[in-house]
Amino acid sequence: ARSQPTAPALHAPGRTTLTYADLATQISYVRQRLGSWGVVPGDVIVGIIPPRPEMALACATIPAAATFVPLSPSLTADNYAELLTRLRPKLVIVPSGLDHPVRAAALRCGVAEADLTPDLNAPAGMFTLDLIRQDQSLSRGVSARPDWAFLLATSGTTGRPKLVPKSHRRLPSY
């Protein structure tokens, strides 16, 4: 971002290309926004974001502030409740306007919810976050290691889904 701020970072059909300077701006925004809700490195944030530029940008920005757990959008409320119980997240992020089973699971498990709203007038992937429901999860202590960028849930086809941590150091660099 410092050496080539105008270089393209993310392309999406019909959208303005996101540059590395835009990416730096979004990282700063996400850190500030999550921090204002008490989220710190090592806190777990679950995201149900359908594949699109916003999911790509969420995966690039949320780990700068917390441990991100992107989950499949196709699970049942009971499956989500089981995962939320195991993960102990501070927050669940869901696209605004999406009536999704994870919302019922978050309510049942006492996990705060935030809406992710794409900014269609901004470069590809840019979004805003709004806390729509506070809950007891925001006052929990840290539940993961601060050096974990992601916790990935396996499919669970051979049993209970496993949670696989990925540290910042183990992520590929391009």
Describe the secondary structure blueprint for this structure.
Blueprint: E1 8-10, E2 18-19, H1 20-36, E3 44-47, H2 53-61, E4 67-70, H3 77-87, E5 91-95, H4 101-109, E6 112-118, E7 127-133, E8 148-153, E9 163-167
Parallel strand pairs: 3-4, 3-5, 5-6
Antiparallel strand pairs: 1-2, 6-7, 8-9
Helix pairs in contact: 3-4
Please give a structural write-up.
- The protein has 174 residues and is an alpha/beta fold.
- Helix content is 26%, strand content 25%.
- It has helices at residues 20-36, 53-61, 77-87, 101-109, and strands spanning 8-10, 18-19, 44-47, 67-70, 91-95, 112-118, 127-133, 148-153, 163-167.
- Strands 4-3-5-6-7 form a 5-stranded mixed sheet. Strands 1-2 form a two-stranded antiparallel ribbon. Strands 8-9 form a two-stranded antiparallel sheet.
- Strand 6 (112-118) and strand 7 form a beta hairpin.
- Helix 3 (77-87) crosses helix 4 (101-109).
- The chain is globular.
**Uncertain segments of ≥5 residues (pLDDT<50)?**
none
Percent helix: 25-40%
Query: What is the arithmetic mean of pLDDT?
Result: 91
Q: Pairing-aware structural class of the strands and helices?
A: alpha/beta
Q: Report the portion of residues in β strands.
A: 15-25%
Determine the number of helices (DSSP H or I, runs of at least 4 residues): 4
User: What is the general shape?
Assistant: globular
Give the helices and strands as they follow along the chain. EEHEHEHEHEEEE
Oligomeric grouping of the chains: single chain
Radius of gyration: 16 Å
Separation of termini? 14 Å
Largest sheet: 5 strands, mixed
Strand element count: 9
Spatially, the strands of the biggest sheet line up as 4-3-5-6-7
